[in-house]
Amino acid sequence: MAKEPGKEIKHTREDTEQPLVLPGIHRYQFFSNLKDRGWTMNLDRVALFGVVAALLATILKPLARGNPATIYCYECRACYATQDRCPVGIFFQAELAVAARVGDYDRFIRNGGLKCIRCGNCQSYCVQYLPLPQMFGAMQEDTREAIRRKLAPRYVLARAMREGLVGKEFIDDVVKALG
Ligand code: SF4
Ligand code: SF4
Q: What is the pLDDT of residues 3-47, one digit of tens each?
């Protein structure tokens, strides 16, 4: 709609001064006029900021914790195919990879992360050939530090001891934390 001289148009949904890119569509023509949207006019910006912040957290957290390879895990679960080739009976290696990325001690311990002996048998099942033994080893040391600093919940440690999920390298630390 063309603007009549001397008449202010407050709620136009087209801008005929912009070039026509398709029949009836001018470049920069909005579906809704920002003035109509009131409180929600910045909602898309807030949502975009949230998405970017979440992405940055996903990348920056593993970098800060010295476990950058975990960023590349697709969470595709192909490494579950390791099955009984894991000598200590860990079936959900992807759980360990994700726990290592986000620093989730409970998830790591619950899935047997503290009994991994870093043999590397699971690595060839990873579609990206990620260095799973190193990723799990780095998370084991993070978890050991968390146990020493009493950051790992007591009930998680007690359950892990009951279920035989603690490797011999970590038993002293766990027993001390429970004592
Ligand atoms: S590296 Fe750990 S999780 Fe992988 S097969 Fe060996 S013991 Fe199992
Ligand atoms: S196969 Fe590799 S990329 Fe896929 S979930 Fe397992 S560790 Fe992640």
A: 556 565 555 656 677 777 777 776 665 656 666 666 666 777 788
Q: φ, ψ for residue 170 (rounded to 5)?
A: -115, -5
Q: Domain range spanning residue 46?
A: 11-64
Supply the pTM of this predicted model. 0.75
Question: What's the CA-to-centroid distance between 144 and ligand 2, angstroms?
Answer: 24
Q: Regarding beta strands 25-26 and 20-22, do their DSSP bridges make them parallel or antiparallel, or are they unpaired?
A: antiparallel
Q: Which two tokens stand for residue 167?
A: 């490797």
The reply to whether 125 and 58 lie within a common domain is no
Query: How many domains does the chain divide into?
Result: 2
Question: What number does the ligand 2 atom closest to the CA of 80 have?
Answer: 6
Q: Where are the beta strands (DSSP E) in the chain?
A: 20-22, 25-26
4 is a domain residue: no
CB 170 less than 6 A from any atom of ligand 1: no
Pocket test for ligand 2, best of 76, 95, 116 (most atoms within 8 A of CB): 76
Evaluate whether residue 31 is within a structural domain.
Answer: yes
Q: Is residue 74 domain-shared with residue 133, that is, in the same domain?
A: yes
